[in-house]
Design brief:
Number of strands: 30
Strand content: 35-45%
Length: 500
């Protein structure tokens, strides 16, 4: 009796288990059929509905099932209903954002000084130039400095001058001095001073008892002979410049300032200059003045800067990179310069609007400060912007269809009278690989109009019942056009010589 009861219980439990399992399998199977019947797939292991699959590199072409991309050596990527986005924004899934290497940056305020990066050349400081001249008429008997740009020190001999007009006054003075008539000798001495005969030369004549007619002209300052206007044997007269000595401890730097930035340059701004050939050396100085006038050829004005050349390494004519900085800093709104997409007519920044949504925003940019750029309008402090990967977002989300919404789109051209406007058709030849309700898979030859090589890809049907006589394996001629959903077939006919 006990054995019969035990057997009955075992059979009852087994039946219940089989019934429950069958009910569970039927439920899952029915749910899968229901999802398929709604025309949209459900991604395995999730409850998210897949709208279509596509190749991120060719986002305009959509596929109704997963598989390998006909364009690239990669698998098609699903696009979910909750990622489709709305309005003018773009939605990027977190996983895809990581794969694309998208990096965010925060719009921030920073204390930055007005700085300008300019180019200039060094010149002699004309205010520190000294000239070598003579007060009497004479002849250059010898040049001790024979070439321009020769370095000299203060007191070095530049030239020896022979003055024949000094001989007679000296002989008269020496004769009166030997005669013992001191009053006449003193008068003769005063006449020699009036003739610009140096006292040292008169003292030498008194010691030797012979008149002296040669005098050395010395350098009045340490520097470089920037001008040498005479040669040996030349006659010079009072006021004639024999040589010009330019100092080297201070130099001028003439920086070219664009006309549009003239208002930003002021006297007294700090200057940091770097030689083009040696970026390791730095020189400091101040803006001395802004020279009046703008060059008609370059549309630039010149700022005269003073540089301290204490090491003596700078020489005139050097090309220098110049940076001017204001004395006080100003608070500015900045973002990384790489975050700005500039088309020439406008600048756009991609802003993280929500958790996964990206919104393009037109901004007005200002000055560039190193790796950052000033934002004059369009953004506010604390917003998140895309700092890298913008071009990949453009490909992934077909951003070209989003950005034009920010401006005024041109009016479409009207069709000619009596003709219906429509997209231009393109022609191709290929072999039908597969036929479905939505598309034909064609292995087509190169299409020169689009610069396409030979490839296998799907072309959408205009409606599910189109081209009923076309079968897999046929060689066909076809025409198609591009639409928002991809490439749509217009006509498909068997190619000449192909089996019907």
């Amino acid at each position: 009796m006990n054995r019969k009861i035990l057997t009955t219980l075992i059979l009852l439990l087994a039946g219940a288990t089989l019934s429950g399992g069958g009910y569970w399998v039927g439920t899952r199977h029915g749910a899968g059929q229901a999802a398929s019947g709604n025309g949209a797939a459900t991604h395995a292991g999730t409850e998210r509905k897949v709208l279509y699959w596509h190749d991120p590199m060719v986002p305009g072409t959509r596929f109704d099932k997963p598989g390998k991309s006909p364009f690239m050596d990669m698998q098609l990527v699903p696009v979910y209903a909750d990622e489709a986005g709305a309005g003018s924004g773009v939605t990027i899934a977190p996983a895809l954002r990581q794969n694309l290497g998208i990096r965010f940056a925060t719009v921030r305020r920073a204390a930055l000084a007005d700085t300008l990066d300019l180019v200039g050349t060094t010149q002699f400081d004309e205010r520190r130039a000294e000239v070598v001249q003579t007060r009497v008429t004479g002849y250059i008997e010898r040049l001790h400095t024979r070439a321009p740009l020769q370095r000299v020190r203060r007191g070095d001999a530049v030239a020896t001058l022979f003055v024949p007009d000094w001989l007679a006054p000296q002989e008269e003075y020496l004769a009166l001095r030997r005669s013992g008539d001191q009053s006449l000798a003193s008068a003769a001495r005063e006449r020699m001073r009036a003739l610009s005969i140096p006292d040292a030369l008169v003292a030498s004549a008194e010691r030797s008892g012979k008149p002296q007619s040669r005098v050395e002209l010395a350098a009045p300052a340490t520097g470089v002979v920037s001008e040498l206007a005479v040669r040996e044997g030349a006659m010079v007269t009072p006021g004639v410049t024999i040589a010009k000595i330019s100092g080297m401890d201070k130099l001028w730097l003439l920086a070219e300032v664009p006309e549009s930035l003239l208002a930003s340059v002021r006297s007294g701004m700090a200057v940091t200059a770097t030689p083009q050939g040696d970026p390791a050396r730095r020189y400091t100085g101040r803006v001395s003045e802004i020279l009046p006038g703008v060059s008609g050829a370059t549309r630039t004005a010149q700022a005269r800067l003073e540089l301290d050349n204490g090491d003596g390494m700078l020489v005139p004519g050097q090309l220098m990179r110049v940076q001017l900085a204001a004395a006080e800093n100003a608070q500015r709104l900045v973002v990384p310069a790489e975050a700005v997409i500039s088309s020439g007519k406008r600048s756009v920044v991609l802003v993280a609007a929500t958790e996964n949504s990206i919104q393009p925003v037109v901004v007005t940019t200002g000055r560039v400060f190193g790796d950052d750029i000033e934002i004059v309008s369009g953004l506010s402090e604390g917003q998140k912007v895309i700092a890298s990967g913008q071009f990949l977002i453009d490909s992934e989300a077909n951003l070209r269809s989003v950005l034009p919404k920010l401006g005024t789109a041109p009016a479409p051209a009207e069709p000619a009278p009596g003709k219906k406007a429509g997209p231009a058709s393109l022609h191709g030849v290929g072999v039908v690989e597969q036929v479905s309700k939505e598309a034909l898979t064609l292995s087509h030859q190169p299409i020169p109009a689009l610069d396409w090589p030979a490839m296998t890809m799907d072309f959408m049907k205009p409606d599910p019942g189109a081209f009923p006589g076309i079968k897999a394996g046929q060689r066909v001629d076809f025409t198609f056009h591009q639409s928002e959903d991809g490439y749509v077939l217009d006509t498909v006919t068997p190619a000449a010589g192909a089996a019907k």
